[in-house]
C-alpha cells in the first residue's frame, strides 16, 4: 500500500515537474519522509530520484530546441560547487529544523504559484 | 557572470532542501529576460549536474537510499515526458490553485509532524 502511494506520488511529481518547471524534489522529500526516511536521508535520496526525471525532461526539451547548453553548463557547474556547501550545512542541522525550513519553503512556493495563477487571470 | 551567481545560489539551496533548484533558477532567468520555455528547459539541464554533485556529497554521509530513489524517481521520469503535452490542453489555472492548496497542506503536516 505504502509502495503504491510512493509510485503514485512519483507519477504526480513528474507531471508537476513537466507542467510547472519545478523540481520533483518538492514532492519527493515529503513522500520519502512519509515512507519513514529521516530528513537527511530523504534529501540525499530525493536528489538521486531527481536525476532520471531531469534526464528525460531535458531530452524532451532538447528535441524542441529549448535548451541553451552553454548557459546550462555554467549554471550547473556553479550550482554543483555551491551544492557542497549546502550539504555541509544540511548535515550539521537537526532533522526537525530542516523539516520546518522545508515546510516554510513549501508555503513560499504555494504562494508563488497562486500569485502566478491569479496574475494570468487578470 | 549573472549565470554563475544564479548557479551558486541555486546549488546551495538545492542541496539544503533536496530539491532541484529550478524554483530558484527559473524565476531568476525570467527576471533576466529569458522566455519561459528556454528558462525551464535550461534549468532542467543545469539541475542534472547539480543533483549529481549533491548526491555524491550525501552519499559520503550515507544519506542516499537507492531503492527508494528508484521507487519515486522512475515513475516521475515516465510521467514528466507526458506532462509537457498535457500542459497544452488543460486549464492550468485550476490545476495551479489545487496544487498550491495541496503543498500548503503538506507544509502544515511537516510543521506539526
Please give a structural write-up.
The complex is a heterodimer of chains A (122) and B (113). Chain A has helices at residues 2-20, 25-34, 39-63, 69-92, 95-121. Chain A has 122 residues and is mainly alpha-helical. Chain A has one domain. Helices cover 85% and strands 0% of the residues of chain B. Chain B is globular. Chain B folds into 2 domains: 1-64, no CATH class; 66-113. Chain B is mainly α and 113 residues long. Chains A and B meet through α1, α2, α3, α4 and α5 of A and α1, α2, α3, α4 and α5 of B.
Key traits:
heterodimer; A: 122 residues; mainly alpha; 5 helices; 86% helix; B: 113 residues; 2 domains; 0% strand; globular
Summary, kept brief:
Chain A is mostly helical.
Q: Could you say which overall geometry of chain A the principal axes of the C-alpha atoms support?
A: globular
Mean pLDDT metric of chain B: 85
Number of domains of chain A: 1
How many distinct helices of chain A?
5
Strand residue percentage of chain B: under 5%
* CA(first)-CA(last) distance of chain A: 43 Å
Summarize the helix and strand pattern of chain B as letters. HHHHH
The helical percent of chain A reads: over 70%
Determine the fraction of residues in helical runs of chain B and give it as a percent range. Answer: over 70%
Number of strands of chain A: 0
Topology:
The complex is a heterodimer of chains A (122) and B (113).
Chain A: H1 2-20, H2 25-34, H3 39-63, H4 69-92, H5 95-121
Chain B: H1 2-17, H2 22-31, H3 36-60, H4 66-89, H5 92-112
Amino acid at each position: 500500500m505504502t509502495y503504491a502511494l510512493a509510485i503514485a506520488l512519483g507519477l504526480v511529481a513528474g507531471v508537476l515537474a513537466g507542467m510547472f518547471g519545478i523540481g520533483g524534489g518538492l514532492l519527493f522529500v515529503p513522500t520519502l519522509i512519509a515512507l519513514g526516511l529521516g530528513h537527511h536521508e530523504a534529501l540525499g535520496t530525493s536528489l538521486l530520484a531527481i536525476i532520471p526525471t531531469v534526464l528525460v525532461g531535458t531530452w524532451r526539451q532538447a528535441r524542441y530546441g529549448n535548451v541553451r547548453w552553454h548557459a546550462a553548463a555554467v549554471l550547473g557547474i556553479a550550482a554543483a560547487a555551491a551544492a557542497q556547501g549546502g550539504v555541509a550545512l544540511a548535515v550539521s542541522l537537526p532533522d526537525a529544523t530542516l523539516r520546518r525550513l522545508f515546510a516554510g519553503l513549501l508555503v513560499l512556493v504555494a504562494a508563488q504559484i497562486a500569485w502566478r495563477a491569479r496574475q494570468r487571470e487578470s | 557572470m549573472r549565470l554563475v551567481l544564479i548557479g551558486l545560489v541555486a546549488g546551495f539551496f538545492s542541496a539544503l532542501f533536496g530539491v532541484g533548484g529550478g524554483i530558484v533558477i527559473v524565476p531568476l532567468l525570467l527576471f533576466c529576460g529569458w522566455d519561459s520555455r528556454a528558462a525551464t528547459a535550461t534549468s532542467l539541464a543545469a539541475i542534472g549536474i547539480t543533483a549529481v554533485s549533491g548526491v555524491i556529497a550525501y552519499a559520503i554521509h550515507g544519506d542516499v537510499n537507492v531503492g527508494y530513489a528508484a521507487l519515486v524517481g522512475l515513475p516521475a521520469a515516465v510521467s514528466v515526458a507526458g506532462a509537457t503535452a498535457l500542459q497544452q490542453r488543460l486549464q492550468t489555472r485550476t490545476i495551479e490553485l489545487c496544487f498550491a492548496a495541496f503543498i500548503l497542506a503538506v507544509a502544515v503536516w511537516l510543521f506539526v509532524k
